[in-house]
Amino acid sequence: METGKIREERRLSGVSKDQRDVRQGDDGAPPGEAPTLGMKIEDLSAFYGSFKAVTDVSIDIRANKVTALIGPSGCGKSTFIRCLNRMHEVLPGAHAEGRVMLGDQDIYAKTSDPVNIRRRVGMVFQKPNPFSKSIYENVAWGARINGYKGDMDELVERSLKHAALWEEVKDRLKESGHGLSGGQQQRLCIARTLAVEPEVILMDEPASALDPVSTQKIEDTMEQLKQSYTVVIVTHNMQQAARISDYTGFFYIENMGDPGRLWEFDGTEKMFSNPERKETEDYVTGRFG
Amino acid sequence: MTRGGKKAGRQESGGPEFKASMSTRYGLDKAFTALVTGAALVGVVVLALLLADVVRDGSTMLSPEFLTSFPSQVFPEKGGIYPALIGSLWLLGLTGLISVPLGLGAAVYLEEYAEDTRINRIIEINISNLAGVPSVIYGLLGLGIFVQLLAPVTGGGSVLTGALTLSLLILPVIIVATREALRAIPGSIREGGYALGATQWEVIWSHLLPRALPGALTGIILALSRAVGEAAPILVVGVSLYQTYVTAGPFDGYMALPTQIYDWISRPQQVFQDSAAAGIVVAMVVLLLANSFAIWLRNRYQQRS
Lengths: 289, 305
Hints:
Largest interface: A-B, 28 and 22 residues
Radius of gyration of chain A: 19 Å
Oligomer: heterodimer
Number of strands of chain B: 0
Low-confidence stretches of chain A: 1-33
Shape of chain A: globular
Largest sheet of chain A: 6 strands, mixed
Mean pLDDT of chain B: 89
CATH superfamily of chain A: P-loop containing nucleotide triphosphate hydrolases
Low-confidence stretches of chain B: 1-10
C-alpha cells in the first residue's frame, strides 16, 4: 500500500513532536510554547464532477505560522487551498470530501455554514479583485454585511495599516479601488480580508501577478500578518516559499491524470535543505517544474 | 517601376521576398475607409431628410397649444395631441415599472441561480426567440390574458393593460441585455464577495447589479423606446382612438402617440397630415428626452464603477 506508507511518512516527518521542537529553535520563539493548531485537515479529497483533482491530503496547519504550498502547475495546490474555506464548492459541480477542523469544528460538517466559515477563513486570490467601489467601501463592505457594529472608520484604518496600504491611500479613501496599482489593489484585497477579522488567511499565489517591488511589500505584509493570523499560501515561487514560510508542503502528481497529492510536508528549512523524498529535492532545486 | 525601384525596395520591404506594394495597400485602406463612411452616412442622411421633411410638414401645427389641446374633427387646425401625449407618458412609466424589475429579476435568476439543466436551457432559448416575435402577437396574448381573463384586476382595456402587454413585448430584450451585462462581470468579483462571508444575495445586490446596470440600461433604453413607438399591440388591447378625458390613473382608458399619428395620417385632409407630422415630432422629442435621461443615468453609474 503505497498511499498508506506515504501517509505514515508524512505523519512522521511533518508533525512529530521533536520536529516541532526543532522548528521552535529556528524561529526563536520562546521555548516551551508549542505552536498551537490552526487547522487540522484529514483525508481531504477534492472533485470536479467525477474527476478527482486532489486525493487524501492530511496536514496540520500551525496557528500563527506561515505554511507554504508548492509544487508544479496543475497538481492541486489551488484546488486544495480553496477547500479550506469551502470556496471550492462554489464552482459548478465541484465538491470535497474529508475533514477540515477549524478549532473543534469540522467545516464540512452538516451543521457548518459555509458563509460563516468563509468569514472565519479569509482568502486572497491570485489576481487582485477589488470591488467596483471606493477604497473605503472595499474594506468596510465585508465587515458591514457581517454585522460589524464598531467604529467603521477605525476598522478601515486599522485594516489598511495592517495591510501596509494606509500611508498610500489615506488621502483618497473615497476614490475607486480600481485606480490603484496592481500591488496596491492586492494589498487592498488583503485589507478587506483582515477587516472581517478571520482566524486563518488563505492566499492563492497572491504575488504572481505583481512586479518584484509589489511582491516585496506583500511579503513584508505577510511577515506582519503571522503575528495575529494563521497564513496558508500557495506559491509558484520557491524563493518566496523559502523566504516567508515556516512550514512547506510539496504537492505532486506522479502520473498524468492522477489526482494531486501532498508528497511531503515539513519545516521549510528541512524541505529546502534536506527533503526526505527525491521528487521534492528535484523540485526545490529547480530540476523540474 | 524601375525608377527608384532599388530605393523603394529597400524602404518598403524587409527582404527580397516581401513584394507587396505600399501604394496598393494604402489604396485599399482608403477605399475601405470611404466604404464604411458611406455606409454610416446613408443612415444619417436618410434620417436627417426624414426629420427635415417631418418638421417642415408639422411646423404649421406645432405650437404650445398643440401640446395642450384635444384632437378635434370639427376644428382640426385647433386640435392637439394632449391626451395621446399623456397616455404615452403613462405607458412609458408603467411599462418601465413593470418590465424593469421583472427583466432584471429574470436575468439575475437565469445567470446567477439557474442550474445548467435541460429545462433551463429550453427557457433560455425561448426567451431569446421571443425577442423576434411580431408585436401584434403580443397584442393578441394581451387581449386574451389581460383584457379578458384578468379584466377584474386590470380594468379591461385600461392603460395598465396596455403597459402589461408592452412589458411582455420588451421583457426578452431587457433580459438578454441584462444577462450579457452580468456575464461580462468576472467571476473573481463573485468569489471575492463570497470569500468575505457574503451570501449570494449580498454579492448580487452590492457588486453584480451595480456593475451590470450600465449595460442593462442600454437594453432598457432601446426596449422602452420600442415599446412607446409600438402601435400594433395596443391597438389590439384597446387603446382609444379618441377620448374626451385625459388618463389620470392606471385603470383609465388611454390614447397614445403612435395610434394618434396613425389615425391622423389615415385621413385625407392636409390639416390632418400636418397634425400627424407634428405628432411625429412630439413623439420623437419624448423618446429623445427619455433616452437622454437613461443615458445620463447610465453614465452616472459608469463613473461610479
